[in-house]
User: Fold this.
Amino acid sequence: MTAALPSSPPAAGAAKRQFLHDAAEHVRDVGHREFVRRALGGYYTSRDTQKARYRDWEQARDAASMAKWSAVNRLDELLPRFEAAFTANGGQVHWARDAEEARRIVLELLATAKAKAVIKSKCMTSEEIHLNQALEADGYGVVESDLGEFIQQLRGEPPYHFVFPCMHVRRDEISDLFGQHLGTPPTDSPEELTMIARRHMRRLYVDADVGITGANFLVAETGQISITENEGNARLTAALPRMHIAIAGIEKVVERLDDLAVLLPMLATAGAGQPMTCYNTLYAGPRREGEADGPEEMHLVLLDNSRTALLADAEQRDALHCIRCGACLNVCPIFKNVGGFTYGTTYQGPIGSVITPHLRGLKEWNHLSGASSLCGACTDACPVRIDIHHHLLHNRRNAARSSPDRLERIGQKLFAAVARRPWLFATGGWLFRKTLGLAKAIRPPVLSAWLATRDLPPAPAQSFRAAWKRRQR
Assistant:
């Protein structure tokens, strides 16, 4: 049902070739693109309605940005404070340097609990470390309790969008999927489809030995984990099994509980066009004496996985401010045309194109930074003011410095040599105007990829220089 656990790094250039292939295939599926655009149309309307209810949306963005800036720039202080408070509440913190260590920690916890069944709520950090594949390879049954993630699990696909995992799937496809896997009759009713999944899940919550969740925020002041959701499934995942394991990146910490007063509404408005997400829960540790429910043990796996390397980059450090609202994906013209699967990464869209080269290697993933129109819509949409489109340029620059393309360098040197000689530049322009018609006809290989989806404009009758001289006369 899930992709194989990666065992070795991809061959050089494999990710880029796969991206170009998948993007070319996806843009031809006009029906799919139109479906995704219609789905996002409703989001734009509700988002703008909620933004208008703020006294000053831009000032709220400033406050949210400052809360994250303050926390990310003081991780060395706030993470130990959080660990001390969380431990005092009865929880246990496990530090993981990379994905392999995080998977090993979780597997050891499951072995200690003698677990057989695992239920998970939505957790993109677990997708980042390929946790489901590792658990299934070790013989554990794992079920996603979030409806969108559950649908994607049945389809054998990763999330299409890190907020709306199955936004690309139509109702009739979901009905057929449930009929195939759950034996239910066909229906076109969203309510009935939701009830089918709910009836299937209820027993699984009770039977599960371990519940795994993510965390939207970690509050250093109180040692609490904040989880935001719309279905209530994360509450059941955390409360009913006897062990609760949360997985979060180290950048999720904030200093004060008061910071959530701005971050939670901003997350809901920017991410889903809601005034507040339906369920916002703070978890302060395992069940205590006299409490009716809750897990017997609570563990938190804090994941680095190259985040400290990004933290060390003062120029792009603010990419760690991301609260995973998905607003940048929803406005990105590239995402809307190539789709979520094309990126081949856990985090899609503009923010994914910024952070993936840091998390997985600039050399193999620098092509994502080129998958952008640099229109700036992502930066304008970001509720915590991450300078996303400029970071895409930074990644392009860093890639050119670290592994320059030989042909590109030769081309740049040739252009510089021509541009410094006005007579040669003018001669080149004259040749271009005279041969443009021929280029249209023979479509030379150097232009074939560009011309596959574009038409060359007609050649101007004269150069700009000649037109300017004529105007001056």
Summary: The longest helix spans residues 30-52.
